[in-house]
């Protein structure tokens, strides 16, 4: 069975990912949609919010510890008859080093092949925010790893 879900990523830390994820989890729960929250990386704070708003334990998806195969297996196991909601870490492409996506939310998105909802903090911006969001939407994204 192929897993299904949505990844919530940001342009940077403190972009509003946790707030949006929490609101989405609460809204889906109120509509009786079976959900499974996830958090990219070893975070222990945000999963507490996930549990509070969804009633479900959040599962950490740590690519360094788990690797691609285990991430995919976890997503499949925990989303049986549920929709996965993944909260990313930092910015979409931020990971272990500036040259690749290792440890990033994008790495998890490629592995799971779930759509990404990008949260852009536009609180101190006007039309110029289009430069940031436009640059991200045009970033050349490599193909996902073969299965």
Q: What does the model show?
A:
The chain has a single domain (5-132), classed as P-loop containing nucleotide triphosphate hydrolases (Rossmann fold). The chain is globular and about 40 Å long. Helix content is 39%, strand content 19%. The protein has five helices and five strands, in the order E-H-E-H-E-H-E-H-E-H. It has a five-stranded parallel sheet, with helices on both faces. It is α/β, with parallel strands linked by helices and 147 residues long. Helix 2 (46-54) links the parallel strand 2 (35-40) and strand 3 (59-61).
Quick overview:
This protein is of the alpha/beta class and 147 residues long. The protein is 39% helix and 19% strand.
Please, how many helices?
A: 5
At the fold tier of CATH, the topology name is: Rossmann fold
* CATH superfamily grouping: P-loop containing nucleotide triphosphate hydrolases
**Succession of helices and strands:** EHEHEHEHEH
**Approximate strand percentage:** 15-25%
Strand arrangement in the largest pleated sheet: 3-2-4-1-5
Largest sheet: 5 strands, parallel
Bulk shape: globular
| Total domains | 1
- End-to-end separation in angstroms reads 14 Å
What oligomeric state is this? Answer: single chain
Q: What average pLDDT do the residues reach?
A: 89
The radius of gyration computed from the alpha-carbon positions, rounded to a whole number of angstroms, is 15 Å
Structural class: alpha/beta
Helical content (DSSP H or I, runs of 4+):
25-40%
CATH architecture: 3-Layer(aba) Sandwich
Instruction: Let me know the number of strands.
Output: 5
CATH class: Alpha Beta
Spans where pLDDT lies below 50 across 5 or more residues: none
């Amino acid at each position: 069975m192929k897993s299904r879900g949505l990844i919530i990523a940001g342009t940077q830390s403190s972009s509003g990912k946790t707030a949006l994820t929490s609101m989405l989890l609460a809204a889906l729960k109120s509509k009786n949609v079976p959900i499974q929250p996830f958090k990219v990386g070893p975070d222990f704070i945000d999963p507490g919010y996930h549990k509070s708003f969804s009633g479900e334990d959040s599962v950490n998806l740590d690519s360094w510890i788990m690797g691609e195969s285990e991430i995919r297996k976890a997503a499949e196991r925990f989303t049986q008859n549920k929709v996965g909601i993944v909260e990313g870490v930092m910015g979409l492409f931020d990971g272990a080093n500036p040259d690749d996506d290792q440890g990033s939310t994008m790495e998890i998105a490629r592995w799971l092949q779930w759509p990404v909802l990008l949260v852009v903090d536009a609180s101190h911006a006007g039309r110029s925010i289009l430069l940031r969001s436009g640059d991200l939407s045009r970033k050349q994204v490599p193909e996902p790893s073969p299965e």
